[in-house]
Amino acid sequence: MTVNDYYNFCHEICCYVVENIKQQKIGSLIIEIDEAKFGKRKYNRGSVVNGNWVLGGICRETKEIFLMKVEKRNKATLIPILEQYVEKGSTILTDCWVAYKCLGKIGYQHKTGNHSENFINPTSGACTNLIENRWWCIKRQLPTTHTRSKTLVNI
């Protein structure tokens, strides 16, 4: 067995485990929520032309995480997922994307941070650096083309 075969074998086992774990709700603490696109750039240049959107959340205190592939990045898609994976009453930290505006009205404490202005909101202290770091770690483990859509089928 070559090193490449062993790597592929380990990768398949990890994907199987992720696909078959029943994720439970996280929360009652501080949860960072963000979405990321896993895709391929044409000739490694320019904007991403195709790929998969993934919604993720991570608890700051326990480091529990959930990841869910989403077809659409809109309020109608995201809110049911958050209600499924995040306990009501939790403090949710997000970016300033408009689909998250209603979180305060549906039972969550909601704080936002805007990375184009500063990394940590000086008023609320909100930031999404932990989940942004998780995206970086996940993407770093993918092949350089970032196009293993079979891997992202059931995240």
TrEMBL record:
<dbReference type="InterPro" id="IPR024445">
    <property type="entry name" value="Tnp_ISXO2-like"/>
</dbReference>
<dbReference type="Pfam" id="PF12762">
    <property type="entry name" value="DDE_Tnp_IS1595"/>
</dbReference>
<dbReference type="InterPro" id="IPR053164">
    <property type="entry name" value="IS1016-like_transposase"/>
</dbReference>
<feature type="domain" description="ISXO2-like transposase">
    <location>
        <begin position="25"/>
        <end position="150"/>
    </location>
</feature>
<protein>
    <recommendedName>
        <fullName>ISXO2-like transposase domain-containing protein</fullName>
    </recommendedName>
</protein>
